[in-house]
Amino acid sequence: QDHQPGVEKLMKPLAVHIRPEYRGSGKLEGRKALITGGDSGIGRAAALHFAREGADVAIVYLDETEDADETVRLIEAEGRKGLAIAGDVSSSGFCRKAVEQVVQAFGGLDIVVNNASVQYVSMDLTDISDEMWQRHMDVNINGYFYITRAALPHLKKGASIIATSSINAFAGNDALVAYSTTKAAEMGLTRSLALQLVDKGIRVNAVAPGPVWTPLQPASWGLVDPQKVADLGKSVPMGRAGEPWELGPAYVYLASEDSTFVTGQTLHVNGGMIVNG
Ligand code: NAD
C-alpha cells in the first residue's frame, strides 16, 4: 500500500501550506492548472499558491481522504475554480481521462505539475521486490510521462510543465534506491522534453526539494525507523526540514512569466544542501 496507517501521529502538527502574508499579485490570472498529488503536502502548497495568484486549479489524488475536498474548498475560497479527480497516475487511460476532464471543466490547460509520487524505504537492494520496484517506476516516472503526453495537445505557447524531483536525484540515498532512481529519471524527461518543446514556446522545469514536512516522510519512514522522521532536518545546513509553504513560490515562479527564459532547469529548494548537476 502507498500510505501506511497510523503514522499521522508522527507528523509535525499543523503543516502550513500557504501563509496569510503571501499576497498574490495576479501572476497566474486566468491560467488553468493541473497538479498531480495536489491534495497533500507540496502539491497542495503549489495548488493554493497558484489559486492565490489567480489560477483555476485541478488536483489529481490517489486516496479517498478528506484532503482533496479540503484542498478544493481552499482553492475556491481564493475565488477560483477547483476540481479534484481521484485516480492512479500509473494508468495511462486514467491520465487521458483526467486531462480531458480538466480541459472540459476549465476550458483549457496552461500549467501541468507532475508531483504525485510514492516512496518506500528499503535498506538493502535485495529487499526490494519486483512489485515495489515497479510501483516506483509506474507512479513516479510513468505517471509524469502519461499525464504530460495527454496534456500536450492542449498546451499552447507560454504553457509550463513542472516536475517535482528531489535532492535524492542528485545526492542519492542509500535507503531510497528505487525512489532516487525515479527522481533522477524525472530529470532526464524534464531536460529532454524541454528541448523538444522549445520551438512551441512550452517550458519544462523541475523543483527539487530537500526534506519537507509532509505525510510522505512518516508514511515511508514511520514504521521502519520513526527516529528518522524526528531527525528529518538533520542533514540540512539550515538545521531543519522545510515547510510546505516554503515550496509554493518556487512553483509560481516556474509557472509564471517571471521565468520566460528558464527551461530544462532544476530549482533546488533545500535549506542549503549542496548538490551536483
Ligand atoms: P504527500 O504524500 O503529502 O503527497 C503526495 C500525494 O501524491 C498523495 O497525497 C497522493 O494523493 C498522491 N499520489 C501518490 N500516488 C499516486 C498515484 N499513484 N496516483 C495519483 N496520485 C498519487 O507527499 P509530498 O512530500 O508532498 O510529495 C510531493 C512530491 O515531492 C513527490 O514527488 C515527492 O517525491 C517530492 N519530494 C518530497 C520531499 C519531502 O521531503 N516531502 C522531498 C523531496 C521531494
List keywords for this structure.
277 residues, alpha/beta, seven-stranded parallel β-sheet, 9 helices, 38% helix, disordered N terminus, binds nicotinamide-adenine-dinucleotide, oxidoreductase
Explain what the structure shows.
- Its EC number is 1.1.1.47.
- InterPro entries: NAD(P)-bd_dom_sf, SDR_fam.
- Belongs to the short-chain dehydrogenases/reductases (SDR) family.
- It is an enzyme of class 1 (oxidoreductase).
- This is Glucose 1-dehydrogenase.
- There is one protein chain.
- This protein is α/β, with parallel strands linked by helices.
- Helix content is 38%, strand content 13%.
- It has 9 helices and 7 strands, in the order βαβαβαβαβααβαααβ.
- The chain has helices at 41-52, 66-77, 92-106, 130-151, 168-171, 177-196, 216-221, 226-230, 248-255, and strands spanning 32-36, 56-61, 82-86, 111-114, 160-164, 203-209, 266-269.
- It has a 7-stranded parallel beta sheet with strand order 3-2-1-4-5-6-7, sandwiched between helices.
- α1 (41-52) links the parallel β1 and β2 (56-61).
- α1 crosses α9 and α3 runs parallel beside α4 (130-151).
- The longest helix is centred in the middle third of the chain and has 22 residues, at 130-151.
- It is globular and about 45 Å long.
- The protein starts with 31 loop residues before the first strand and ends in an 8-residue tail after the last strand.
- Residues 1-7 have low confidence and may be disordered.
- Bound molecules: nicotinamide-adenine-dinucleotide.
- Nicotinamide-adenine-dinucleotide binds at residues 2, 36-37, 39-43, 60-63, 88-90, 115-118, 139, 164, 166, 209, 211-212, 214-217.
